[in-house]
Design goal:
Layout (H helix, E strand, L loop, with lengths): L11 H17 L7 E4 L6 E3 L3 H6 L6 H5 L3 H5 L3 H17 L3 E3 L1 H8 L5 E5 L3 H10 L5 E4 L3 H8 L7 E5 L11 H13 L4 E8 L2 H12 L6 E7 L11 E7 L5 H16 L7 E8 L2
Helix pairs in contact: 1-5, 1-6, 1-11
EC number: 2.1.1.266
Family: Belongs to the RlmJ family.
Subunit structure: Monomer.
Amino acid sequence: MNYRHHFHAGNFADVMKHVLLLQLLNRLNQKDKPYCYIDTHGGAGKYDLSKAPSQKSGEFLSGIHRLIQLTAQEKKTAPETVKHYLKLVEELRTQDGQGAYPGSPWFALKGMREVDRATIFEMQPDVFQLLDHHIYDKRAGLHQRDAYEGLLGVIPPKEKRGLVMIDPPYEIERQDFPQLIELLKNAYAKWPTGVFAVWYPIKDRVMVDRFLKKMANTGIRRQLVCEICVWPDDTPVGLNGCGLLVINPPWKFAEQARESLKWLAPYLKMHELGGSVVVKTTVGE
């Protein structure tokens, strides 16, 4: 596979995904019992935005860079969940340098408690070596394994509670993502009480609508869609926006997600007609 997240680290889609990831973990933290966090495509764990891949794409400039450049007064207006995200980003920048940006595994381990546990998959050998170098935490088990077969082997976890973050490279997941739908159906059948969060790109609205309709027809209950579009839907730029499909969203997560995305949208939009936000339940109880 040719996908390398180094080119996209810190872009608007990363900002959206990581803010919502921290919110999901925060909601799970409200109960005393431990849980397991599972990341199906962990990536390198950390990224350096000052290095060639990120500098070549420049995507971070319209993502995390915009938020870092906000005034103290502007940051003060952010929801607490966004403030927490920015605080963690600044923590890593102070520790590793001003070009540092965390990946999902790093954010997750910061958002979890000591009693919780993580299982992180990454299939690409060179990226896994970076993950193994960057993530050293007794709570985390790292696996060089294809998540499409690995996930079903680790659920349900012994904790019985938990969150699965699914963010594939979308190289084989073409059209309306049939492989992803099949994985979710099988995973949900094994662990119907687990929380599943699936990040997806918005390049073609018709394709996304087909994906969400097919997901609604799976019989899986409690599906919540969170989307942010920084360009209008019909703009041919490659990535107009992104979404997070959450199965079994925790209590009050939808309200928090809506508040955070609405605050972020004006700062991340790339067009005067961009910056649209949708948070809606597509399948109820």
